[in-house]
Amino acid sequence: MELAGGWVSRRVQEAAEVDLFEYQGKQFFAGYGMPVSPGEIAFTVDEAVAAAERLGTPVMVKAQVHAGGRGKAGGVKFAATVDDVRTHASAILGLDIKGHVVGRVWIEKASDIAEEYYASFTLDRSEKKHLGMLSVEGGVEIETVAEENPDAIAKVWIDPVDGLSESECRSWVAAAGLPDAAVDRTVDILLKLYTAYVDGDADMVEINPLILTPEGQVHVLDAKVTLDANSVFRHEDYAAFDETQSRDERETAAHEIGLQYVGLDGSVGVIANGAGLAMSTVDVISQVGGAAANFLDIGGGADVDTMAGALEVINNDPAVRSIFINIFGGITRGEVVANGIVEALERVTINSPIVIRLDGTNADEGRMILEPHFSDSLQMASTMLEAAERAVGLATTASTGA
Amino acid sequence: MSIFVDETTRVVYQGLTGSQGRYYGLLNRDYGTQVVAGTNPRKAGEDVDGIPIFASVAEAVAETGATASCIFIPAPGVHDAVIEAAEGGVKFIVSVTEGVPAHDEARFYNRLRRDFPDVQLLGPNCPGIISPGKCNIGITAGHIALPGGPVGIVSRSGTLTYQALYELKQKGIGCTTCVGIGGDPVPGTSFIDCLAAFEEDPETKAVMMIGEIGGSAEEEAAAFIRDNMTKPVASYVAGVTAPPGKKMGHAGAIVSGGKGTAAAKMDALRSAGVQVGLNPTEAGELMAGIVAGL
Predict the structure, then answer these.
(1) CATH number for region A12-36+112-243
(2) How far apart are CA B9 and CA B36, in angstroms?
(3) Which end of chain B has fewer CB within 10 Å, C or N?
(4) Å from B162 to nearest chain A CA?
(5) A-B Cβ pairs (cutoff 8 Å, strict)
(6) How far apart (Å, rounded) are the C-alpha atoms in residues B209 and B287?
(7) Which of B209, B193, B204, B158 lies closest to B6 in space, CA to CA?
(8) Please, which residues 256-285 of chain B have a Cβ atom closer than 8 Å to chain A?
């Protein structure tokens, strides 16, 4: 729980997951002794060409984005020559893949592929154990395999206290039906993958495909890694991955001041305390016919600095036409919240009308503090629904210019 | 009656000497909770406003007969604190702290299940538990809860737990016990644990369940309600309009098997006979209707 003045840095808790790019994932895997191809990261076409010259062709040119389906979108190309690298890197850098613009490409020594497998570890929340999945049908989306041929996925549930033993791992690989030639090396990789998953505090590690080469080598050809941001206290190096998370402009601004913010498409700016209440606020706005511009949880404290920062972030969003501040005082007292709002409004000039709903501990005292400041641009509503209706009404009026 | 904690529960606070532990520990005591001890290996023999500090939970249990623990310790120390509490002999553990790594949670959850099967862990990352008028462990503001019955509350979300208590109090409806199970990947206590306990509790006549998007806990709870509950349930699931959240890649999507959206959760609950409100107020009104018909 968010505690008033809590000891946990908000910066840390606020993004629970850290997604790695493929190349970062491969570097992460390599750190645990797993075989990956040599490669280099490039931010420009010239860098890509220089990398290919150093590595020696043929190479793969691979878009680095936090989105699946890169291949289908034209983000992964084989380059037989350095000229091909120039052509492909030019096409891929700047490409939009599911809303993510490619800013960097990974240039990797090309591999010959005999067979493609799938391997992953993640937490099975229902079983409360780790789940390993292995399939000889790699290279395609695993959801498709799960749907069309679920028997092709061998699963193993691992008690986190015991870990994964070599003999269990062997039985698992046998159950997946890998060819004899691939078994020993795959067992070795899977044991290292499990160590990386646990010691690295990953929410998920996935190799798709894990390949068998014609020479009988087993090799990591793609890497998908999601780290648990809550573990940064024992992985200081993870802070570096923070810069490469995909966020829109508004999310970046909110992130910088440590707010939990998700950008949405509507016109009612939302400020609430607590993730559940913030989600609920977005729901209620939609139920009365509006649309929220954002989800913003200011946590339990709701002090002046947090409130001012939150108002500023919302105020800078050009799509916002009205603002709904929804506060439920539990331990946080209503008059503290009200003072925070009043002081924040003195610091920041707000362009849109504000509707406040304040309930819970000392809500009456809070309302009395706010009352002298009430106007067309600062209103109070007694329930969540009423506040949502008013905020949506104000947003509609503002956007039609009525 | 109430579930898990009542006026006989004797609580040791791990981290009572810290600022958070002291603040909430004393608030809980003011509420009427039997706060019998605190722990801090470096401050054994001292006291916090008259509450004795011991070096370990085991010592606190031996000296004070503590039956429950509340952990107010920063995230890096929570794993060891949970194990210490279980080894020390308490039977109910509340872990409020947020930001505990998922791997730590998976480890201590499975360790407890194996070596301490009679110990119930609540949390981490939860507001705690309150049996109004009897015992409040954690950070819930006690005065927003009306003592008595007939409603039991279980919630995955902090502020919505308070909202639910408040909605019922506004309507003059009391609560036997309100359990905030928290929204972390491996909650020590599940919806089902609470639903089963409420079903057994003679004073609880109906249950309010507050869910959230993500995971499949609500779907599992729905199946339990359908098969095992005779008492009526009203529910709200937050996040109906939330955009698809950050999925845990392909592997995560498979584990949940397409479950996890608010719509899927509400459908599952409705088909189990649960009355589902579209917002907390509506859920409160549905519960008022249920209570009126009891």
Answers:
(1) 3.30.470.20
(2) 10
(3) C
(4) 7
(5) 213
(6) 10
(7) B204
(8) 256, 278-281
Distance from CA of B127 to the nearest CA of A (A): 6
Cβ pair A8:B281 closer than 8 A: no
Count of helices and strands (H, E) across chain B: 10, 14
Q: Are B125 and B182 in contact (CB under 8 A)?
A: yes
Nearest-Cα distance to chain B for A320, in Å, is 18
Note the ipTM here: 0.91
Contact call for residues A163 and A129 (beta carbons, < 8 A): no
**Best mutation target, B27, B129, B254, to test chain A (most A CBs within 10 A):** B254
- What are the residues facing B10 on neighbouring strands? B34
**Cα nearest neighbour of B218 on chain A:** A126
> Which mean pLDDT values do the consecutive 10-residue runs of chain A (402 residues) have?
34 59 96 96 97 96 89 94 97 92 95 96 93 92 85 96 97 96 97 98 96 96 93 90 74 77 90 87 94 86 79 92 90 81 88 92 88 93 94 87 50
CB A247 within 8 A of CB A226: no
Distance to chain B for A201, nearest Cα, Å:
6
pLDDT in tens, B191-242: 999 999 999 999 999 999 999 888 889 999 999 999 999 999 999 998 887 7
Beta bridge partners of A294: A263
Query: A249 vs A350, B188, B246, CA distance in Å?
Result: 19, 37, 18
Dist CA B62 CA A222 (whole Å):
55
Whole-prediction pTM: 0.91
Contact B162 A68 (CB under 8 A): no
**Does B77 lie at the interface with A, CB-CB under 8 angstroms?**
no
A126 with B216: Cβ contact below 8 A: yes
Q: Reply yes or no on domain A249-400 having CATH 3.40.50.261.
A: yes
Q: How far apart are the first and last CA of chain B?
A: 18
Domains of chain B: 10-122 (3.40.50.720), 128-292 (3.40.50.261)
Among partner residues B99, B240, B256, which is closest to A283 by beta-carbon distance? B240
Domain boundaries, chain A: 12-36+112-243, 39-109, 249-400
Q: Whose structure tokens read 């584990």?
A: B255
Name the CATH superfamily housing domain A39-109. ATP-grasp fold, A domain (3.30.1490.20)
Whether the CA torsion B215, B219, B223, B225 is positive or negative: it is positive
CB contact under 8 A, B141 and A329: yes
Contact by Cβ (8 Å): B158, B127: yes
Contacts with B138 from chain A: Cβ below 8 Å: 1
CA dihedral sign of residues B277, B283, B289, B294: positive
Q: CA nearest A295 in B: which residue?
A: B242
Give the type of residue at B167.
E
Give kind and range of the element (H or E) at residue A388: helix A384-400
- Cβ contacts (< 8 Å) between B83 and chain A: which residues? none
Q: A75, A126 in Cβ contact below 8 A?
A: no
Closest chain A residue to B248 measured between Cα atoms? A204
**Which residues have C-beta within 8 Å of that of residue B247, sequence separation ≥ 6?**
B253
Residue B212 has its nearest CB partner, among A126, A142, A276, at A276
